[in-house]
Specification:
It is a single chain. The protein has 289 residues and is α/β, with parallel strands linked by helices. It folds into 2 domains: 184 residues, NAD(P)-binding Rossmann-like Domain (Rossmann fold, 3-Layer(aba) Sandwich), CATH 3.40.50; 87 residues, N-(1-d-carboxylethyl)-l-norvaline Dehydrogenase, domain 2. Helix content is 45%, strand content 14%. Strands 3-2-1-4-5-6-7-8 form an 8-stranded mixed beta sheet, sandwiched between helices. Helix 1 crosses helix 2, helix 9 packs across helix 10 and helix 10 packs across helix 11. The model has no long low-confidence stretch (mean pLDDT 97). Bound molecules: nicotinamide-adenine-dinucleotide.
């Protein structure tokens, strides 16, 4: 598949990442299909997308015409079969190996064999996910966007052990057409950014668990003295406590329980209590006010 042949992009998962990626795709002129198993998630995604694009019009980043044209290019659907004509797929569903493999196996059975199948996984092995695809495994690749996907420029392009050079080159070119900056990474647990970020969250959670300090103070210190754009707790709330916990668990397991990456009981407690951060209104901070 050449980049010029890509007309239709399919996005699976309409959560935090899927909706941001859909904005990039539609603004770059691609027909965009966004699929989710949850109709509530699709409704929320539609509302959020319209709000984000209206905000961009107010800030004069795009015109009202561009906003309307982008919205006109997006189809929201729970019908998986509508993805069958897509030239390029970006999977952004839950960070769960079994869920992703099942999705890739279904894509294998409905999509053309030259359609590129990418995953936005934060930490899982692209090579492992690609084993769910039997026809032309070389078309499976990692395409790791950052949150918020419509704003953050970086995309890690992860070459699995079976990924073909053609797939790699097309994915790099498409990333540029989406107005993003691609960097390539080998298929190792959590790639570059999330690997470095694990101890950032992990140490902050340990400091909190030990009662040394509170989220507000830790975030303030890291921003004012460390010059980070966001503190670890603000960032975890933005990512989603559930997503961050899944990523931590997968990296911990992938490195054979290296204590450096051990998850925190605080993460588990918050997931059990549905305190998932911004998306549920409560995380380390309260967003319901
Ligand atoms: N949140 C982040 O900061 C971030 C950043 C980079 C990458 N990621 C990765 O992106 C992916 C999605 O993360 P997110 O934060 O958007 O999660 P999210 O929980 O906000 O959204 C996931 C969506 O996927 C849907 N879904 C689950 N199973 C599905 C299936 N079988 N078919 C279709 N839809 C399905 C859910 O209904 C939900 O709407 C994960 O792999 C995550 O690791 C997340």
């Amino acid at each position: 598949m050449n980049t010029e042949d890509i007309r239709k992009i399919g996005i699976i998962g309409s959560g935090t990442m899927g909706r941001g990626i859909a904005i990039c795709s539609a603004l770059a002129g691609y027909e965009t299909i966004i699929n989710d198993i949850s109709s509530v998630a699709l409704d929320n995604s539609k509302t959020s997308l319209e709000k984000i694009l209206s905000g961009s019009v107010e800030k004069k980043k795009i015109t009202a015409e561009e906003k309307n044209a982008a919205l006109g290019r997006i189809i929201f659907t729970s019908d998986f079969n509508l993805l069958k004509d897509c030239d390029f797929i970006i999977e952004a569903a839950a960070e769960d190996e079994q869920i992703k493999k099942e999705i890739f196996s279904r894509l294998d059975s409905i999509c053309r064999t030259d359609a590129i199948l990418s995953t936005n996984t934060s930490s899982l092995s692209v090579t492992n996910i690609s084993t769910a695809v039997k026809q032309n495994t070389g078309r499976v690749i990692g395409m790791h966007f950052f949150n918020p996907a419509n704003i953050m420029k970086l995309v890690e392009i992860v070459k699995g052990d079976f990924t073909s050079d053609e797939t790699l080159n097309t994915t790099i070119e498409l990333t540029q057409k989406l107005n993003k900056t691609p960097v390539t990474a080998k298929d190792t647990p959590a790639f570059i950014v999330n690997r470095i970020a694990r101890p950032f969250y992990g140490e902050a959670l340990k400091i909190l668990a030990e009662g040394t300090s509170d989220p507000e103070t830790i975030d303030k210190v890291m921003k004012e003295c460390g010059k980070f754009a966001m503190g670890p707790f603000e960032l975890m709330d933005m990512i989603g406590i559930d997503v961050n916990f899944s990523v931590t668990k997968s990296v911990y397991e992938a490195f054979f329980n290296d204590p450096k990456y051990r998850p925190s009981f605080i993460q588990k407690k918050m997931v059990d209590a549905n305190m998932l951060g911004r998306k549920t209104g409560r995380g380390f901070y309260n967003y319901q006010k």
